[in-house]
Amino acid sequence: MLPLAKHYTVIVADPRGTGLSDKPHTGYDSATCAQDFHRLMELLGHDRFAVVGHDIGMWTAYAMAADIPGPIQRMALVDAIIPGISPSPRC
Q1: How far apart are CA 35 and CA 68, in angstroms?
Q2: 34-54: per-residue pLDDT in tens?
Q3: What is the spatial distance between Cα 74 and Cα 65, in angstroms, rounded to a whole number?
């Protein structure tokens, strides 16, 4: 992230329930987390932005693009599958 921060505003936030974020009783689905991040970007004054989703954060990034694609200029998704959409890994 540090090399990106030399040229871009980099915002890194934990989705609800992970890291140092609050641990509410509900709202852990990807659609709710996507709404959280869209709202965060809105509150920070970013009406257009790029998104990177890594590991399980990719699920939220995918939901952001699927549910409210308008503000997203570009997206990178890496290192995770999307349950029900991606084929399961072979055992």
Answers
A1: 8
A2: 999 999 999 999 999 999 998
A3: 9
| For helices 30-43 and 57-67, angle between their N-to-C axes, nearest 10 degrees | 70
pTM beyond 0.70: yes
DSSP annotation string for 50-88: EEEEETTHHHHHHHHHHH--TTEEEEEEES---TTTSPP
Q: How many Cα neighbours within 13 Å face the side chain of 80?
A: 16
How many angstroms separate the first and last alpha carbons of the chain? 33
> What would you report as the CA-atom Rg of the chain, rounded to the nearest whole angstrom?
14
